Amino acid sequence: MIYKRSIPNTFTLLNLFFGFLSIMNSAEHDFKNAAILILIGMMLDSMDGRIARMLNAESELGKELDSLADIVTFGVAPAMMSYYSYFKDFGIIGMAIAGLFPLFGAYRLARFNINAMKSTLHYFTGVPITAAGGLLTLFTLFHGSLPSVILPIAFIVLCLLMVSKIKIPSLKEVPLPKYGTIITIFLGYAIYIVFKHEHHKFPYFIYVAIPLYIAFIGYQFVKEKDRRKQKEQ
Predict the structure, then answer these.
(1) Most exposed residue of 40, 48, 135, 146, measured as fewest CB within 10 angstroms of its CB?
(2) Tens digit of pLDDT for each residue in 41-62?
(3) Contact at 8 Å (CB) between 25 and 194?
(4) Kindly report the CA angle at 193 between 192 and 198, in degrees rounded to 5?
């Protein structure tokens, strides 16, 4: 049983590790690779819970690890991207503003965790940090092609949406797509557009990560379809 639990936990820890690597790349002003590492973190995040359920290996440890990984990969890492690419120019004020995103994200995760028993299949309260972090990454990646006011506005709006009490449809009753998958697809396409003329700089391990992720999504879709057929019989 311990061995089975270690499999989804490994995916969660890899998610956290890729978030850390993204922060390192942002510090070196390599924002394209920083975005790709967040993209891979999103793939891993959408897989760990499903794998735990497949193996019947869900645990409290896994849930806590998942929250810790999420705050790094989808809270701190996107905030660091936005800080080094934009807010750094505003000195200590920019540092304080950039720090708001992981703070709001941490609050959102903590609120979700304590209300987990009261959660519903139909909606989330507030935007999930995975979706918010993915969207912030997209806005940061393209901020040079957008009006300069767009990134700070998106930053503030996403912070507020995470801690808001707006009801967001959860799509839990639908096998695919989920918010993480939707944002992953958009982020992946955006990264392709950014890198399409710079293949010599493209990190080739993404060619392994994306096919594996697509295969996993396909497997989940087929499995869910079979499960529903069995219920109807």
Answers:
(1) 146
(2) 888 888 887 788 777 877 888 8
(3) no
(4) 75
CA distance 228 to 206: 33
Distances in whole angstroms, Cα of residue 58 to Cα of each of 48, 64, 218, 231: 10, 11, 22, 23
**Count of Cβ atoms closer than 10 Å to residue 99 Cβ:** 15
Helical ranges in 115-149 per DSSP H: 129-141
pTM: 0.80
Query: DSSP states of 135-168 as a string?
Result: HHHHHHHTGGGS-TTHHHHHHHHHHHHHHS--EE
What's the pLDDT tens digit per position in 168-180? 776 555 554 455 5
Q: Which residues contact 146 (CB under 8 A, 6 or more apart)?
A: 139
**Helices 150-163 and 100-114: angle between axes, nearest 10 degrees:** 20
